[in-house]
Write a structure and sequence with these properties.
Chain lengths: 111, 206
């Protein structure tokens, strides 16, 4: 992760969540209006639009990660949510970064 | 006991309920076969919950309308019924409260939206032959882990259905689905039948 800029982390985390067993969608965490603004900014910067769905906020007391996911109906939504959380946490731990102060994962849709 | 805060003071079709979308716009999107893809709809869990409910309603509605038209060309009752369900789809798909999901890891803040849970219940009911879910209500302090929660499901049933059997089966299916997906101290599942005999010919044939 040494060659990554901080802006790459949300993209990495979005991709990571999409590969978690039982997660079928990663929804934007921001309100739709701010999402549109973000999409425009990303388009200007030639970043892949729609990839920055996970929000990562750096504060004085540490990092906060927020994600909103849709999960498959054939698995326990609670279990998939925990699995998604653990994957996010492991991303930071495995890369030697400080584990986020708070990781918030919400399930917005089942099925 | 805390009752689900229904956003009734605003119109059920208020776009704010569905991340800026209306039931009408979602219906148009379904008409178009979801093409061209509208990212703002596809990326909204509330809109997705509503789309799923709308799609199921569309499978059933023609049966209701045809049967009613055969009995009365003005079909006043079922016009109201369909509008009532459309309104509820708009209201109930909104995210609502956050229901905590336990996880014994420091800093973990996990939850499932009330709208997602209502959608689970609606889908469970709509998947059953002979009934359609009108609305679902979660009563209790769902935001506090371990607090008892009652779920009330209002349904309509089609003609020829054994209502007692259908409601018992729905109750069992809802309990099973909630137990599978949500960390919730489910106290009871109450099923209320609001309308019966919604359809004619097809139900009679069963």
């Amino acid at each position: 992760m040494n060659d990554e800029t901080p802006d790459d982390i949300p993209t990495e985390l979005t991709r990571l969540l999409r590969n978690v067993d039982g997660v079928h969608t990663v929804y934007p965490t921001r309100h739709i209006v701010s999402t549109i603004v973000t999409a425009v900014v990303e388009a200007v910067r030639n970043d892949p639009v729609g990839m920055h769905l996970v929000t990562v906020t750096e504060g004085d007391d540490g990092t906060e990660v927020v994600a909103n996911i849709g999960v498959a109906a054939d698995q326990s939504a609670s279990m998939v949510c925990r699995r998604a959380h653990d994957a996010l946490r492991a991303y930071f731990a495995d890369s030697g970064s400080a584990v986020p102060r708070r990781i918030r994962v919400s399930v917005g849709r089942v099925g | 006991m805390t009752e689900t805060p229904e956003p009734s003071p605003t119109s059920p079709l208020d776009a704010a309920n569905l991340d800026g979308h209306t039931v009408e716009s979602l219906s148009d999107y379904l008409d178009s076969g979801r093409t061209p893809r509208i990212e703002a709809i596809e990326s909204s869990p509330a809109a997705q919950n509503a789309l799923a409910a709308l799609a199921r309603l569309r499978m059933v509605a023609p049966r209701v309308i045809d049967a009613d038209a055969a009995a009365d060309q003005f079909a006043p009752r079922n016009d109201h019924w369909i509008k009532r369900i459309l309104d509820q789809i708009g209201v109930q798909a909104n995210a609502g409260r956050d229901i905590p999901i336990s996880h014994d890891v420091p800093g973990a803040d996990l939850s499932i939206s009330e709208g997602a849970v209502r959608a689970i219940v609606r889908e469970v009911g709509d998947d059953m032959e002979g009934l359609l879910v009108e609305r679902c209500r979660l009563d209790g302090d769902v935001e506090t882990p371990g607090a008892p929660v009652d779920i009330t499901v209002e349904i309509s049933t089609f003609e020829g259905i054994d209502i007692a059997r259908a409601t018992a089966e729905l109750r069992e299916r809802v309990e099973r689905a909630i137990t599978l997906h949500v960390d919730m101290a489910l106290s009871s599942v109450i099923v209320r039948v609001r309308d019966t005999d919604l359809t004619g010919d097809e139900a009679r044939a069963r």
